[in-house]
Amino acid sequence: MHISAVERSGLTDLRDDQKVTFDIEPGRDGRESAVNLALA
């Protein structure tokens, strides 16, 4: 998961060991993107 996905989700206070959930969706450029990030 790229840091830009975390920044877009608004999860700014993540710890190194923090678990998150997310979905994967295809991006416009053919790469996959993490979406719907939430604290686990």
TrEMBL record:
Name of this chain's protein: Cold shock protein CspA
Organism of origin: Oceanicola granulosus (strain ATCC BAA-861 / DSM 15982 / KCTC 12143 / HTCC2516)
Compositionally biased region (Basic and acidic residues): 16-32
Xref: InterPro entries: CSP_DNA-bd, NA-bd_OB-fold
GO MF, one annotated term: nucleic acid binding
Domain named CSD: residues: 1-39
Superkingdom assignment: Bacteria
Region called Disordered, residue ranges: 16-40
